[in-house]
Amino acid sequence: MAPGDPARASGNDTPVTQFILLGFSKYPDLQELFFGGFLLIYAVTVVGNLGMMALIFTDSRLHSPMYFFLSVLSFLDICYSSVVTPKLLADLLVSDKSISFAGCVVQMTFFVMHATAESFLLASMACDRYMAICRPLHYGSIMTKETCLQLVAASYAFGGANSAIQTGNVFSLPFCGPNQVAHFFCDIQPLLRLACANTAVAGVVLYIFSALVTFLPAALILTSYSSVLAAIGRMRSAAGREKALSTCASHFLAIALFYSTVIFTYVQPHGSTNDASGQVVSVFYTIITPMLNPFIYSLRNKEVKDALQRKLRIKLFPC
């Protein structure tokens, strides 16, 4: 039955105290394979992002706004992947796939907060590249430490606001009937389908605020990078063009991975995707993309590769 159908209100009146995360239970023979794969990906995610953060904090040559934002991006990737993946791993090993009502609220709250904060952080990173390439004479005076901290704080403020709105939007509805969530974590759309009330208004709220926190940063990013690409095209130095393009290509690839999957999941007409395709896309942006980001930035960034080589030389050849 589709979200928003009034017939949902005629079900059982017993309040739901827990949800069952069905996740990948349709594939019982593949549970161990899924567990091994997701555990490996999660381990690489944590180690890769922590390694990126440690490298940036310990190498003075990487103490610039761009790498500060990159370290925050790594932190966010660890956070929102950790909100989802450990519970998924546990559910793949046990038959009881339940999560308490309060646990579901907490999981959704922190997931939406960190995912939204990452959306605005990516916009901040695009603005940083715009200032560095298009306004180099003013870069040092504008992109100060205080400005960077304010941009990160603003990203978290937007994340907290969107999280409060979206979580409140879902859990202000009554849940009194089915409690089986056709997903591997407490996501917004699967839970709206279980509400014992008309969810038409809640669906509109989801669509509007999801669009705001994706399209506004995305528009800022596209505007910034359009100016950046134009500025790169006017550069006379081939080496300068190559370095700028390499850095911007890393940023743009990470941005494309994040926004394409988020828009596919949240900024679509209700019911336009089925549960299976929704889960596949969710795996990509909650589990795989956080693992890929450190490699995207390190493999295409000469400064990061040089810093890593310096650290390895010190460790292997301390004298």
What does this structure look like?
The protein is mainly alpha-helical and 319 residues long. It has one domain: Up-down Bundle (Rhopdopsin 7-helix transmembrane proteins). It is built from 10 helices and 3 strands, in the order βααβαααβααααα. A 3-stranded mixed beta sheet has the order 2-1-3. Helix 3 runs parallel beside helix 7. The longest helix has 34 residues. The chain starts with 17 loop residues before the first strand and ends with a helix. The N terminus is likely disordered.
Quickly list its features.
single chain, 319 residues, mainly alpha, Rhopdopsin 7-helix transmembrane proteins, 10 helices, globular, disordered N terminus, transmembrane helix
- Looking at this structure, what is the CATH superfamily? Rhodopsin 7-helix transmembrane proteins
Largest sheet: 3 strands, mixed
What percentage of the residues does DSSP assign to strands (E)? under 5%
CATH topology: Rhopdopsin 7-helix transmembrane proteins
Q: Which ranges are low-confidence, i.e. pLDDT below 50, for 5 or more consecutive residues?
A: 1-11
Order of helices and strands: EHHEHHHEHHHHH
Q: Give the CATH class.
A: Mainly Alpha
Rg: 22 Å
**Distance N terminus to C terminus?**
69 Å
Mean pLDDT: 85
Oligomer: single chain
What count of domains describes the coordinates? 1
Which CATH architecture? Up-down Bundle
- Structural class, by secondary structure, is mainly alpha
Number of strands: 3
Give the % helix.
over 70%
Shape by Cα distribution: globular
Our count of helices gives 10
